[in-house]
């Protein structure tokens, strides 16, 4: 992809998504509520609500709450998995028993409901989408793929569609389905993540598609944002850095652990959901070492471990619960308001890009001009 096309993409993302700054908040389920989404949007970015598993009535209530707090555009994160629900799921039957090697970690709570088809229920997801359209939400963000019919419905409802991908193949498929923006999420990202590092994935996808590409994975400050823009991205999507904000709906124990992290203490593990997910390493993930063959496919794995994990998460336990966290956590040194995070990130990136222009002039002057050498 040539430089002029990359520069065009930089400006285009603002026109497509209607924001002042090229910074999107990640649609983190259970974390990105109206408080965080409104704060990011009010600061000039695009706040995205993490609503993939919420009941429709709560979806509507939270959209309206965000609207009361900001007049800027907002987005909603939903899931429309393109793969069918695995036949190995235990929904409709008793959940698999917890393996013996986990029982020393605690006693499962039998009252915890683990039967949850909401992630794979397209009708319920479609109902959430209709609510978002009726409420005038400007952007739909989807992970796990996005069907063409969903893209068409969102467009008819006046929405732009953002698709989160972790590979070139997935990016091309999303482009073919008509989405407006691609988010290229590198291996460093928290939560479900792919195998390719950000520095390789971002330019690969920028070169592969003709849409604006937003970079994600490991971006925690203006340096990461500037690097992403220089690699051809049209903006950045930020998750882990926004966990350490008062607006994020995550346990204080998670925030405290995140800002105290000096060396990478995350691990990509299938032990919570059945799919590779980057989380903070703890006693739970360590207990599975040597027992990897016992991990079940998604979503049966979650149905099996939820009676142990859900109560632990409600209690803020860092040793048993799943805390999706990216490798960029080592760059986060304090909890700060979301608006301050967005502002400082943009300011630092602008300063670095301005510095880069001067360095570019110096480099150009130092490089011999071979065009006049022959003669």
Structure description:
The protein has 375 residues and is α/β, with parallel strands linked by helices. The chain has 2 domains: 1-84 and 118-247, TIM Barrel, CATH 3.20.20.70; 250-336, no CATH class. The chain is 40% helix and 13% strand. The protein contains 13 helices and 11 strands. It has an 8-stranded parallel beta sheet, with helices on both faces. Strands 7-11-10 form a 3-stranded antiparallel beta sheet, with no helix packed on it. Strand 3, helix 4 and strand 4 form a beta-alpha-beta unit. The longest helix is centred in the last third of the chain and has 29 residues, at 338-366. The chain starts with a helix and ends in a 9-residue tail after the last helix. Mean pLDDT is 90; it is low at 87-92.
Distinctive features:
375 residues; 2 domains; three-stranded antiparallel beta sheet; 13% strand; TIM Barrel; eight-stranded parallel beta sheet; alpha/beta
């Amino acid at each position: 992809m040539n430089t002029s096309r990359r520069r065009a993409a930089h400006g285009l993302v603002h026109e497509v998504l209607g924001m002042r700054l090229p910074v999107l908040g990640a649609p983190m389920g259970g974390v990105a509520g109206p408080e965080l989404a409104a704060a990011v949007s009010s600061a000039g970015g695009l706040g995205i609500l993490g609503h993939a598993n919420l009941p429709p009535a709560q979806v509507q209530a939270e959209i309206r709450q965000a609207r009361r707090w900001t007049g800027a555009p907002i987005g909603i994160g939903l899931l429309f998995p393109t793969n069918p629900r695995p036949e190995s799921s235990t929904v409709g039957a008793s959940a698999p028993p917890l393996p013996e090697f986990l029982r020393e970690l605690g006693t499962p709570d039998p009252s915890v409901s683990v039967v949850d088809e909401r992630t794979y229920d397209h009708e319920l997801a479609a109902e959430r989408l209709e609510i978002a359209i009726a409420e005038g939400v400007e952007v739909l963000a989807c992970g796990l793929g996005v069907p063409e019919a969903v893209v068409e419905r969102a467009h008819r409802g006046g929405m732009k569609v953002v698709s989160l991908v972790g590979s070139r193949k997935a990016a091309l498929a999303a482009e073919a389905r008509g989405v407006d923006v691609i988010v290229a999420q590198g291996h460093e990202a928290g939560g479900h993540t792919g195998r390719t590092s950000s520095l390789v994935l971002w330019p690969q996808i920028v070169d592969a598609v003709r849409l604006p590409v937003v970079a994600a994975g490991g971006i925690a400050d203006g340096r990461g944002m500037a690097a992403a823009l220089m690699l051809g991205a049209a903006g950045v999507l930020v998750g882990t850095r926004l966990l350490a904000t008062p607006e994020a709906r995550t346990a204080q124990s998670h925030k405290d652990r995140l800002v105290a992290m000096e060396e990478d203490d995350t691990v990509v593990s299938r032990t919570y959901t059945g799919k590779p997910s980057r989380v903070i390493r703890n006693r739970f993930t360590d207990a599975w070492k040597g027992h990897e063959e016992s991990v079940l496919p998604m979503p049966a794995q979650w149905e099996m471990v939820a009676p142990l994990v859900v109560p632990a998460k409600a209690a803020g336990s860092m040793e048993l619960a799943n805390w999706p966290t990216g490798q960029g956590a080592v760059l986060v040194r304090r909890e700060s308001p979301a608006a301050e995070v967005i502002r400082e990130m943009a300011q630092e990136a602008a300063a670095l890009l301005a510095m880069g222009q001067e360095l570019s002039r110096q480099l150009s002057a130092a490089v011999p001009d071979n065009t006049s050498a022959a003669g």
